[in-house]
């Protein structure tokens, strides 16, 4: 945060610490260490930048869920509720050069339920990929998922404002892909935990991301701009 003699910076540090503590408590996480750094506001005031590092144990590394689309024909689906939360988003900064407004509202209960679904799906080998919807929302997650192995996707957005659907950064959401044979079991798992599930389309071997009726974008190059990395064999 800003300089230590600035009352606003002191308030920001206190509010940030209380917010992180509340979140850790609600999610059942232990905080093992924390510190705050104050910096002179060279060039003017700036906002606090919290950095959180979380560690966990993966009992079976073979059960991990990759981040990128890997198999042509897989269903592509969105988990969680998308709300009109564009303030503080990458879209607001890139398109309107604006940083402000009310940021997306955390929902610890939804986060816990989503984690339970993803953990159970990983153990049952239901998913072929899962990608967070943080910075950039659904739009950036789709591009990154396609570029991982140079595959494309053909999708339709859910109803409502397409800008919200593509760029909202509402928390407790994940983009997934999975084989059609596992879709019913996965949908049942989502229903069991109260997680909204919307099927968007499917993975295609075109090297293009197409949102039907909206746009088509070439995404064939793989990680780092080199040739697409080798896709794993379907288990």
Describe the structure.
- The protein has 235 residues and is of the alpha+beta class.
- 30% of the residues lie in helices and 14% in strands.
- It contains six helices and seven strands, in the order αβααβαβαβαβββ.
- It has a seven-stranded mixed β-sheet with strand order 2-4-1-5-3-6-7.
Short summary:
It is built from six helices and seven strands; from the N terminus they run αβααβαβαβαβββ. A seven-stranded mixed beta sheet has the order 2-4-1-5-3-6-7.
- Tally of contiguous helical segments: 6
Oligomer: single chain
Largest sheet: 7 strands, mixed
**Unreliable sequence segments:** 223-228
Helix content: 25-40%
Shape: globular
Task: Give helix and strand order, one letter per element, not per position.
Answer: HEHHEHEHEHEEE
Beta-strand residue percentage: 5-15%
Q: Give the mean pLDDT.
A: 88
| End-to-end separation | 47 Å
Radius of gyration: 20 Å
Strand order of the largest sheet: 2-4-1-5-3-6-7
Count of DSSP E strands?
Answer: 7
Structural class: alpha+beta
Task: For this entry, give a set of tags.
235 residues; alpha+beta; seven-stranded mixed sheet; 7 strands; globular
Q: What's the helix and strand layout?
A:
Blueprint: H1 7-27, E1 75-79, H2 90-96, H3 108-123, E2 129-132, H4 137-147, E3 152-155, H5 162-167, E4 174-178, H6 183-192, E5 197-204, E6 208-211, E7 215-218
Parallel strand pairs: 3-6
Antiparallel strand pairs: 1-4, 1-5, 2-4, 3-5, 6-7
């Amino acid at each position: 945060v800003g300089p230590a003699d600035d009352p606003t910076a002191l308030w920001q540090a206190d509010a940030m610490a209380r917010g992180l503590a509340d979140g850790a408590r609600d999610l059942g996480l232990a905080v093992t260490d924390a510190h705050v750094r104050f910096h002179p506001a060279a060039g003017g005031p700036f906002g606090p930048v919290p950095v959180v590092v979380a560690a966990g144990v993966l009992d079976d590394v073979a059960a991990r869920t990759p981040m990128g689309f890997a198999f042509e024909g897989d269903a592509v689906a969105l988990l969680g509720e998308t709300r009109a939360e564009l303030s503080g988003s990458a879209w607001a900064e890139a398109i309107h050069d604006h940083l402000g407004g009310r940021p997306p509202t955390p929902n610890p209960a939804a986060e816990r339920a989503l984690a339970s679904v993803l953990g159970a799906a990983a153990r049952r080998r239901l998913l072929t990929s899962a990608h967070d919807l943080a910075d950039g929302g659904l739009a950036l997650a789709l591009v990154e998922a396609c570029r991982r192995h140079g595959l494309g996707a053909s999708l339709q957005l859910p109803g409502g404002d397409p800008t919200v659907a593509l760029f909202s950064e509402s928390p407790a959401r994940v983009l997934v892909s999975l084989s059609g044979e596992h879709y019913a079991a996965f949908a049942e798992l989502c229903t069991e935990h109260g997680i909204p599930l919307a099927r968007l389309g499917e993975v295609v071997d075109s090297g293009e991301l197409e949102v039907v009726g909206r746009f088509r974008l070439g995404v064939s190059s793989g990680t780092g701009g080199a040739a697409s990395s080798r896709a794993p064999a379907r288990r």
